[in-house]
Every structure is written in C-alpha cells, then in structure tokens.
Amino acid sequence: MNSIMVKINPVAKPRMTQRDKWDKRPCVMKYWAFKEELLLKAGRFELGDRLDIKFYIKMPKSWNEKKKERFDMQPHQQKPDKDNLEKGLLDAFRKEDCTIWDGRVRKFWVNEGTGSIHIKNLWQDLEVATTTIKLGRNAFNVMRSF
User: In the chain, which end has fewer C-beta atoms inside a 10 angstrom radius, N or C?
Assistant: First the structure.
C-alpha cells in the first residue's frame, strides 16, 4: 500500500516523564489509546522513509455553524503543534524513526464526521542528477533530486 486514510482523531505525543509509569495522567492514557487504535485501524500498512502526512482535526462543538463553514478544510494554526502530532504518529508505527529522512506534515480543520490522518509514502527510488560546475580553477559537483 502506498497510502492510507485512517478515521481517527489525531493525538499529539505528550512530554512523558518517569512518573508516568505509575501516575497515569489523562493525556498520556489518551495517547496510548490513540496508538493502539491507530495500529489496529492501519492494519498491515508500513511507513516508508519519505512521507506526506495530513492531519484532519475535528472542530470544537462550541463553534457556531458560520465559523465552522469558514474554517472547514483551512489550515489548522493552533495547538497541538504539527511536530508533536507527527512524533505521535511515527512513534506508533516505529520503535526507531531515524530512517525517515524526508517528509511533509500539514494539518487542517474538518467539520464533517471525525478527524482523520492521511499518510502517503512518497517514491522510494530517488533519482539524483549530478552537474559539475566550474568556478575558476575549482569544480563542484552539485546534486539535484527530482
């Protein structure tokens, strides 16, 4: 599978401490439940090393209909931060995410249904073109990926 859409409300990874082993804070418990549900719903999907991730975050019920219409599918520019959402997702799929070297993460408001996460593996075989540029007596190899 190259991409997957998971119907789940995204949860950012909280900052955890040693105390969380015995004092079960609600934010940590919510995160662990999110991880389990995400893996269950994702099935056999495997993350590649280059990703395009979109988080669709449900609007608060307290918003009026006019505000919901205005913000539907617009960029989400509030907390949770995109990097904490990304970390929560990557940690759910992998113990070590150091092999992921390229990615784009975006987050949007959504009014209909529940929140969701769209994950797309980008192509794995990266084409690289090398060009030699001469400046005076020096020559430089420049690599471009496309």
Answer: C
pLDDT in tens, 82-136: 999 999 999 999 888 888 888 899 999 998 777 889 999 987 545 545 566 666 6
Torsion of CA 102, 100, 107, 33, to 10 degrees: 180
CATH class of 3-145: alpha beta
Residue, of 76 and 23, whose pLDDT is higher: 76
Q: How far is CA 20 from the centre of its chain?
A: 24
Region of 43 on the Ramachandran plot (φ > 0 left; ψ -120 to 50 alpha; else beta): left
On whether the pTM is more than 0.70, the answer is yes
Q: Identify the pLDDT of residue 40.
A: 94
Q: Which residues are CB-neighbours of 24 under 8 A, at least 6 positions away?
A: none
Secondary structure (3-state) at 114:
coil
Between CA 14 and CA 12 the distance in angstroms is: 6
Region for residue 113 given its phi and psi (left: phi exceeds 0; alpha: psi -120 to 50; beta: otherwise): left
The domain locations on the chain are 3-145
Neighbours of 13 (CB within 10 A): 21
